Backbone:
């Protein structure tokens, strides 16, 4: 069994049913049936063969989510080639590194902007023979550049169909990790890796032909690749592609998804917008909102304890749903069965808030190297504050130093062209060392406490896991982003990006005058407000885990500033170097 054999079986089974939906600029969503999709994949695959693509050749992808991405993936797999997806936000230099390291023969790009990026480094990539452009253009294409439609036309002109020689143990893809330090490593995942993980996830979460998923997380990330690409297409569901990350809210209303995958940032943003709207409302509206949340929380608590909420509580829940939560549910399109969260830690308070509103967020855990799912919460068994139970066929154990280890058919074949790095993470007994610190509780749920590399060691020898503290503090309506500092220092400090809308509203209500943002952040009242938020939210943490100092930053951490990875993880070393003077200013005694 391979990904392409499963795809062809799905096409045959679901035929005229919509498989994909996309929205041309200025238009409305248009459906592509499973049959049409299958025909496109077949044509593109044969077209690649006419370009000399053979088994095990690498075909790179530099594109946003769109139907051509999916066609390229399956079309390449059908030829026996290996796909090398890349984040569309990568720089030309980063693209050059991946193309050279993978030895890519062809790269498919989405837009003229991405094309210019590749053309600027083409002479530095000797293995690159062709560039395929998705967008049509009226201008004459440069030498070596072929239109996607032309490749498909070449394939349609080929009469013969060769028998596939792809096996389940062949490499399906090489995904380059977006690591927070150093050059990325190419993770080799086989057809068998994906299929084992796919089957494990499908046994726990029911996705069927009645489901519609809105896809906006990058397909170059393995989380979306498996959960938002392979799972729905092998279940007969439909995938609708968001126009961009900036149009997700509007596209949710247009598509009305039943299932949706996201990183925690989306849920945090939705939560913050709700709270901001409440703060701007009248005292009566605020009172009704807090009453509704308390009712929803009581219902959620009963469900988590395995109890049936009382009749009175259910009646109150119905009222709260109409008065408080109806707009939030409508914002998701009104048909959502559940959200799935991955890629980073989901603050427990966020999960609890959404569940109080009647929306379940199922958090899972995995890495690129594990195809990706190691554990997950699912509708029949979930616990907030954890990343669920190991999925079927996957072994998990905790090493003596607290590191999470995993073993099974989901573990990668290895790092491409890098046996030394592979040997560092996969031991002689085939246990993969995740680099994450965690525990397995009495009910079998996995809980992540932090990345092994992120542990802060204070000058007194105390070890501090920053993630739980950061997750707690970011729940403040006045804190948008935060990063703890303190390695080899006496105590913890924090770089904080405030929630400017909430902060400005508070400043206005409390008559705090400031000439500009910089002056507002330095105002005594604002400093005291943030200090109070930190103290009140860390009462359950140990003395050495208290944040003693902080600095408020005017600019958000971002990918554009190279402070975050494409999966929105903080590049801590980059941030520490960039804000070195600010950090030193918080520790004057060390100067």
Residues:
């Amino acid at each position: 069994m391979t990904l392409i054999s499963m795809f062809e079986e799905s096409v045959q089974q679901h035929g005229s049913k919509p498989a994909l939906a996309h929205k041309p600029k200025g238009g409305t969503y248009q459906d592509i049936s499973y049959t049409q999709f299958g025909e496109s994949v077949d044509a593109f695959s044969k077209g690649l063969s006419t370009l000399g693509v053979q088994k095990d050749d690498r075909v790179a992808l530099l594109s946003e989510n769109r139907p051509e991405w999916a066609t390229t993936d399956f079309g390449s797999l059908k030829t026996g080639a290996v796909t090398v997806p890349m984040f569309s936000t990568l720089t030309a230099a980063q693209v050059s590194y991946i193309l050279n390291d993978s030895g890519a023969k062809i790269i498919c790009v989405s837009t003229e902007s991405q094309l210019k990026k590749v053309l600027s480094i083409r002479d530095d990539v000797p293995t690159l023979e062709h560039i395929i452009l998705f967008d049509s253009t009226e201008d004459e294409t440069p030498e070596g550049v072929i239109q996607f439609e032309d490749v498909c036309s070449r394939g349609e002109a080929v009469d013969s169909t060769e028998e596939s020689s792809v096996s389940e143990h062949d490499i399906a893809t090489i995904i380059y990790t977006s690591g927070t330090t150093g050059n990325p490593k190419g993770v080799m995942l086989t057809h068998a890796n994906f299929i084992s993980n796919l089957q494990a996830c499908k046994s726990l979460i029911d996705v069927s032909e009645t489901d519609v998923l809105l896809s906006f997380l990058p397909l170059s990330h393995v989380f979306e690749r498996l959960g938002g690409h392979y799972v729905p297409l092998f279940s007969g569901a439909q995938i609708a592609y968001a126009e961009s990350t900036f149009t997700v809210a509007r596209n949710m209303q247009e598509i009305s998804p039943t299932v949706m995958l996201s990183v925690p940032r989306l849920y945090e943003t939705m939560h913050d917008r709700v709270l901001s709207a409440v703060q701007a409302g009248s005292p009566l509206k605020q009172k009704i909102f807090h009453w509704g949340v308390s009712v929803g929380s009581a219902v959620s608590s009963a469900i988590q304890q395995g109890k049936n909420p009382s009749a009175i509580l259910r009646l109150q829940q119905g009222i709260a749903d109409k008065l408080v939560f109806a707009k939030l549910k409508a914002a998701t399109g009104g048909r959502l069965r559940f959200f799935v969260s991955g890629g980073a830690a989901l603050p427990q308070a966020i999960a609890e808030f959404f569940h109080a509103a009647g929306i379940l967020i199922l958090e899972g855990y995995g890495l690129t190297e594990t195809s990706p799912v190691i554990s997950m919460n699912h509708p029949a068994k979930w616990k907030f504050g954890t990343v669920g139970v190991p999925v079927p066929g996957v072994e998990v154990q905790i090493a003596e130093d607290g590191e999470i280890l995993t073993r099974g058919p989901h573990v990668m074949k290895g790092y491409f062209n890098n046996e030394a790095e592979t040997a560092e993470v996969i031991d002689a007994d085939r246990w993969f060392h995740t680099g994450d610190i965690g525990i397995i509780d009495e009910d079998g749920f996995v809980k992540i406490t932090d990345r092994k590399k992120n542990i802060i060691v204070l000058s007194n020898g105390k070890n501090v896991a920053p993630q739980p503290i950061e997750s707690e503090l970011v729940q403040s309506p006045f804190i948008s982003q935060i990063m703890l500092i303190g390695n080899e220092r006496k105590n913890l400090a924090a770089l904080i990006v405030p929630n400017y809308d909430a902060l400005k509203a508070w400043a206005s209500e409390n008559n705090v005058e400031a000439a500009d943002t910089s002056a507002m952040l330095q105002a005594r009242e604002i400093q005291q407000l943030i200090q109070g938020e930190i103290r009140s939210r860390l009462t359950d943490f140990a003395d050495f885990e208290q944040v003693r100092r902080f600095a408020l930053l005017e600019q958000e951490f971002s990918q554009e500033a190279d402070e975050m990875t494409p999966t929105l993880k903080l590049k801590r070393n980059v941030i520490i170097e960039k804000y070195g003077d600010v950090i030193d200013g918080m520790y004057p005694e060390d100067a």
Residues 344 and 569 are 7 Å apart (CA to CA). The chain has 20 helices and 26 strands. The radius of gyration is 25 Å.
